[in-house]
Queue: 4 jobs
Job 1
Amino acid sequence: MAVSEASRARYIRWLKIALPLAAMALLSTLFLLSDNADPMAEIPFSTIDLEESARSQRVTRPSFAGASAEGDLIAFTAAEARPREDNRLDATELNARIDMTSGNGLDVSAATGLIDQPADTATLAGGVLITTTTGYRIETEEIDMGMKALRAQTAGEIRAEGPPGRFTAGRMELTTDPETGKPYLVFTQGVKLVYLPGTTEE
């Protein structure tokens, strides 16, 4: 039996409506069958890490620079610093550099340190190594240094090599001559010198 043109047109119009509805129903079924994933669960973070970071407030590669009244340049750098409640900073791998107006220089390095800017003091501790452009290499365990003044003093014994030879002392101090204004190192409290031939020039 032949299908009339009118019947064919009605059939095509019905398919245009039915097929899109069927496709939407199929997609809805797929969404219902899928897992209900929490989008926040896809973000990898640790609550403990975030709390620790907020609590520590650590600063990486901090630097501090100042100058003495005479124009000597003093700079400190560290690998990391963490603030204390009293506004001081605990530092790791603390280094200091002093460039004096006389042309001489001094470098200090230590495993840890305590920076107290209000008191104009930095304490370097743990395997402290001091080298000077005048040929001294000094080892000690702790030294206090000025951050804007040319001063430094060890807390205890030093072991050193320099132009006079190899020696030890109970304490070392970097100070300034009040008359000339020139800085110099002072070794006190039982200096013991071992002369090394060939270390000085006549």
Job 2
Amino acid sequence: MTIYPELTVTIDNRPVQWEEIKHWKAKRALVVLQLFADYGQKVILKNQTLLQDTFHDLSDDDLIQAAKETKLALGPNKILELLQDEFKKSDEMWHQIIARTPQDAPLKEMHIQLDVKGLTIAKIAQINIQNGFKTGLSNKEIAILEKAYDLHPEHYVFSQKRNIQDVVETFGEYGSPTHFNLMMLDAKEEKFLDKIDPRTKKIIFGKGLLASDQFDIQQYALHQFIPTKDGLHVDLGLFAPAGVPDAAIVGHQRHFAIEFSSLFINILKQMHSQPE
């Protein structure tokens, strides 16, 4: 039985509890730790360096924490430097995907659903989910990175200027980490009007471009927040080129489940800790 009954996640009509999603998160944390170990970097947990032959035996919680601490210790500039070869492989993959996608082919579409009892859009904005991990970064930088790292282990780099997010993550648990820019746009102006639920009160909509050459990878995220009688319903939508392998689409379902479940679990933890 889940310890967070307020949160319901539905993937392909199957309810998935937080405990299963957290295990997915830990498995992706292990991938991150192994990647950095392969590049000769130290794996850090509780300010201690772990031997490579020991971190595979960590608990789910410790794997997730070690991925966060290791990335914070490296810092975004070092991570960008280390992963240059990964970016080249990923850029080539995306160019090949677009090249093999027929020009008029419809986008592949994927959704997952989250329902959170006792939560409103206004309450999300009010809750502070920073954890205060200490590094040499500025307070603003660490606040942004901590939030990104808390949500998913495969968030390697994250920053935002105006409506452009600079992001490194592995798309759909498929291939190498991608360095891309996510342009935050108006879904209605981008001809996604027919995809918007009329009950929606808040929309997050973004379009992906490769950071290296601003190549349009024709990937869109459309997330809709819909108030309900007892809380909030969230529809997480992904639209991707027809040439994207189905395995990557399924993988990004898990990515969204990890990312947004982690967000709402952090919020629920704070709500539970507050006096009635």
Job 3
Amino acid sequence: MPAGASSTPPLANGQAGAGIFSIAATGNTLVAVGGDYTRADARAGVAAYSLDGGHIWFEPETPPAGYRSAVASIPGLGGHFLAVGPNGSDLSRDGGRVWEGISEAGYNAVAFAPGTLTGWAVGTEGKIARLTIRRGLE
């Protein structure tokens, strides 16, 4: 097994509020997010990626900025993923290796309409955001 690799996703676990909370795929690339929702700002153990359909998992070089409750693959942009959580949203353009913060607005779930660059994120108190991804993210 390559250095830094694991046969299970290296996300926070062992506590009642910790674990994998969402997984998304595009081809053989899988991205899992979660962490410990009682420690929403902790960056360790909040994401992992696999390039072989889940056999071998890696920690990202730059993780999301805290616990993430949901992740979605962006259709038509192979390897692009959006993760959301209570303290913000992060984008990966390389299959989950590096994440960059794109918003501090908190959301609990995210999804994209199949075959489109339009998605929705939802959060507390009925918050809904329409997301339109512009070409050029590649």
Job 4
Amino acid sequence: MTGPEQLVDDGPRLGRRRTWVVLAVVLVVLVGLGVLRFGGSQPDTAPAPAPAPTLPGESSTDPRAWPDDLPPGTLLVGGGGQVVGLDASTGALAIAPVGLEPAGTVLTVLADGVLVWRPGGRGTRLLAVDGLAPRTVRGGLRSATSFLPGPDGRVWATDTSRERATTWRLIDWRGRTARTVDVPRPVVGDGAGGFLEVGRREVRPVFPLVERRAEPGDLVATGPDGHVVRSCAEGECRFTLVRRDGTTEDLDTAVGDDTSAGTLSPGNGLLAVTEKVGGRSTIRVSVVATGEVKEIFPSTRQTADDAVWLDDRWLALLSEERLVLYDTTEERVVTPRVSIDGPGPLAWRPA
């Protein structure tokens, strides 16, 4: 009797064990299928999400991409034996290239083009900005040997060197003379189409503002709304901003003694100067009112044409044989993909 009772008693327990075994096997199978299905053993063929588009008004973070927020106009860049005009909105070629003479070539903007000339040379040419092929200039532009930017899209021209000239003619792009001006001594451009007389330790506006007093010191920079003069005495130097309306302001800005050229932004807010520091040529960008240095760029040419302001925000400059666009507001440095070997002079023609 004991044997059958044990058989009867063990039967249900054995059935329960088999049931649990079956359930465990099923569970293992289900888990395995889940791993195969969701664990990535099969390749994921779903397309990758598209990158977020750059919205209008936003700038690419690519330091080589042409900025999309430059002011409208044409940036003229010399190099590789030619001068090209770049559309500031896209960086694309905007005008037909013109051959560039050897070192020393200067670009002077006109209302309907830009003069490509070499001091003392007769190979002056006009580079048109409306898609026309470059052509040799006419009239007073052909006979002149030196030029300075003039008002209303014209240029000042003289038949002698700028260092000795005392008679200047205001000429339009067709070579027609609008007026002639006699100045007491040699002059430089004031950044707004007029003249500054730079004498021995003094700077004086002579046209069109002929009644201004001279500011003692050396000319550091010019711009469309004023110029900066540095005066030194007993080892200390003072910097003065002389605005176009004649008012002056002492500045905290300081530049080195070996400064060859400087340019003020249109609103007199920023200053870019070409100077030597420790035997190296640099372009230093600073805030006029405080002297705060925004950026320092290596420079090789050390000329007045190494930097041009496009507006109060953007500066175009040449650094280490490359074109650089500097956003002073966001402190962004862009070295665009421009195929120009050994960039030379720069010029800016607003739209």
